[in-house]
Amino acid sequence: MEYKVTYTIDKSEINQQKMHLIVINRRPQYLHRPQDTVKREIERQLFQIFIKYEQTH
Fold this sequence. Notes:
The chain is built from one helix and two strands. It is an alpha+beta fold and 57 residues long. The protein has one domain. A hairpin with a 2-residue loop joins strand 1 (5-16) and strand 2 (19-30). The mean pLDDT is 83.
């Protein structure tokens, strides 16, 4: 089963002295998956990244 994912886009501007930055953040919104399942999957992926980082240092 394939899950349909849409994204919420947040856009903000930061003005600091002579710098002008635009920050765009995309957040997934899972329409057909329970939020707990999505959270577990994100945690699992982050843990895998952490493990790789620990093994290289």
